[in-house]
Amino acid sequence: MNAFQDLLMGFTIALSPENLLFALIGCIFGTMVGVLPGVGPSAGMALLIPMTYQLPATSAIIMLAAIYYGAMYGGTITSVLLNVPGEAASAVTCLDGYQMAKQGRAGAALAIAAVGSFVGGTIAVMGLVVAAPLTRFALEFGPVEFFAMMIFALTLVTGLAGKSIVKGMMSGVFGLLLGTVGMDPTRGMARFTFDRMELMDGVGFIPVIMGLFGVGEILVNAQGQFRPIFETKVSSLLLTIRDLKASFWPILRGTGIGFFMGIVPGVGVTPAAFTSYTVEKKLSKTPEKFGTGMIEGVAGPETANNACANAALIPLFTLGIPGSAVVAILMGAFMINGLVPGPLLFKEHPEVAWAVIASMYIGNVILLILNLPLINIWITLLKVPYSILFALVLGFMVLGAYGVDGKAFDVGVMLLFGVVGFTMRKLDIPLAPAVLTLILGPMMERALRRALQISQGDFAIFMESPISAVLLVAAGIVLLLPALRFLPLGRIRGLGGADAEV
Amino acid sequence: MRRVSQGAALVCVLFALWVIAQASQLEYSTSIGPGAGFFPMWLGILFGGLSAIWFVQASTRPDEPLQEDFIPDRGGMFRIIAILLAIAAFTALVDFVGFQVTMFAFLLFLLLALGRQNPALTLVLSLLGSVGVYYVFVKWLDVPLPTSTIGLLSGLGL
User: Fold this and answer.
1) B window 113-132, beta carbon within 8 A of A
2) Mutate to test the interface with B, among A53, A155, A167, A187 (most CBs of B within 10 A)
3) pLDDT of residue A235
4) Residue A342 DSSP one-character state
5) B50 to A414: CB separation less than 8 angstroms, yes or no
6) Backbone angles phi, psi at B34, to 5 degrees
7) What is the pLDDT of residue A496?
8) Does B24 touch chain A (CB under 8 A)?
9) Which residues contact A121 (CB under 8 A, 6 or more apart)?
10) Average pLDDT of chain A?
11) Are A88 and A37 in contact (CB under 8 A)?
12) For residue A434, how many C-alpha atoms fall within 13 Å in the half-sphere facing its CB?
């Protein structure tokens, strides 16, 4: 079957009443997660994964994917209304979005963000449909190529996450070490289990990410007083012809910027949003007005961040490589449901892969239709004081951690990693690489050991394969790129400094 | 910030040494390829090397002042420790006392002591978050949650 026929099959599954309901629930929860300050998409998805245990695999993934891209839109609401970004990627929207709100144009800002997000997200999903047939090339990969590909993806993430490559790599290696806890995948020997039966299957992924992202975030917020949240009045949501004309090209440019940055693992949505804002400011005839309420300053970045978020699923679906912490959590959700994202997913479970892709089209429509009329409900949610919210979120996290396997031990793991996450934030060590390597580590080790078994311990096998050699050389270049700035070859701008955490 | 970074880097070096020591007790290689200790051994060495680089960077780069809120004030420290103790207490008690009672006490403490909410609202939210959630998860979502092992409480359906 070709991609179009596969997509039609996916739509027939995604448009079932049950799956439509789950997509709707996911969009609502995702937007709520994006709206609530202190609960990022990572923690939000981790919180809601336990609710999907009893669902069929396809429905569970549809709902979790909807939470993921729903959260991207939710963060916009607080940026515009409160000058507080719901998540990092929406920070740039504060610059002009909040100014528009102060001028009584919050409705127009939210409306153009919704329209731009819809356009960017839909075009990115089309890109996923086009990229899907390319997975047959990935099926040619053996353990050598697979290991090299993961090394390349990880160097992109660790090299681009945060300000320090050393700290990014430390975070990545820490996640790999966590992945070695439990039974050795080949020989069946217990490693770092401290004779605890609970650790024989490894450290629980859900408790770890809940701790790192959820509890860690709450501990950071607990340092200050739990301040009340104030509201801004929302005007009409109608856009003028002038608004639409001014936003047309920023939305198109934002789609392109977000899409191409999204398919590169490790870049993240935040750099895409900031890049779009910078481009719009440079191309504007009145750049001095940016920061005073220019609608272009909302349309471009909001389109870019949603296009990037959807495009980031392309490496996950086609190669099985998560490009960010949030996508890694989605990958974890796949695996919990007995599915392995990557080229084999299209071969062994095409109905799941194409149903999820089709549901992303549907989800973008749902978000557009849903979020504009529901803005007043989200505003009401923002009136819930953080002094109540933090307790409810903590309660939900504790419940979620316990519900993974019905063990109090997992709540203890979440507590431990809450302290670790808090400490990492204090020391400016990025969290995203640790989450990615926790997911990829066991697969990397299996690929490495299988490759060395084939070559009887000879590491030269990694350079004998052309694909592997190219990927490893590229990984080396990414790691050395910041150091090249200091050579007398002119100023070479590195890619560092971008926050890959979502 | 220099002292803090140096201290953290040293802790990481010690952690790496511990990993290497543990990995050395596992088989490094076998007749058919790398053993269980191969991957963690090299990860430990890599982590130790990176930690050492971090220590050197912290020692040689200009010192930066600590962020204003790097060390929480007294109130902040109290809230952080209270949250951690509350989660620890939940972990220790949930299988013994049961989910409903433990979660009720957990929410009650957080909302009253830290959130400083009024008692009526706290009671309602704590009941919804404990008993309400229990019934949603156990009866509707079919996710098992523990009941109390204490005779009196289990007799009450808690």
Assistant:
1) 114-117, 121, 125, 129
2) A187
3) 60
4) S
5) no
6) -60, 150
7) 36
8) no
9) A69, A306, A307, A309, A310, A360, A364, A367
10) 80
11) no
12) 23
**How many whole angstroms separate alpha carbon A445 and alpha carbon A182?**
13
Residue in the structure block whose two tokens are 């580590």:
A441
At A409 the pLDDT is: 93
| Min Cα–Cα distance to chain B from A426, Å | 7
Chain B stretch 37-56, residues whose beta carbon is closer than 8 A to a beta carbon of chain A:
37-40, 43-44, 46-47, 50-51, 53-54
B chain contacts of residue A226, beta-carbon cutoff 8 Å: 114-115
- Contact (CB, 8 A) for A347 and A132: no
Rounded to whole angstroms, the Cα distance separating A83 from A96 reads: 10
The residue to which tokens 């989910």 are assigned: B99
**Interface ipTM > 0.90:** yes
The whole-angstrom separation of Cα A437 and Cα A331 is 12
Output the pTM of the full model: 0.76
pLDDT tens for each residue of A436-492:
788 788 888 988 888 988 888 888 889 998 889 998 998 888 777 766 655 554 443
Q: How far is A460 from chain B (nearest CA, A)?
A: 15
Residue % of chain A over a pLDDT of 90: 12
**Dihedral sign, Cα of residue A169, residue A173, residue A179, residue A181:** negative
pLDDT tens sequence across A312-355: 888 888 878 887 777 888 888 888 878 888 777 877 888 888 88
CB atoms within 10 A of CB B138: 15
Nearest to A38 by CA among A274, A228, A245, A218: A218
Tokens of A258: 């977000």
Q: What's the whole-number mean pLDDT along residues A44-66?
A: 79
Chain A contact present for B112, CB below 8 A: no
- The confidence score (pLDDT) of residue A267 equals 66
Q: Does B26 touch chain A (CB under 8 A)?
A: yes
Q: What is the pLDDT of residue A492?
A: 39
Q: Is the pLDDT of residue B88 over 70?
A: yes
Cα–Cα dist A412/A398, whole Å: 9
CB atoms under 10 Å from CB of A125, counted, come to 24
Q: How far apart are CA A487 and CA A478, in angstroms?
A: 16
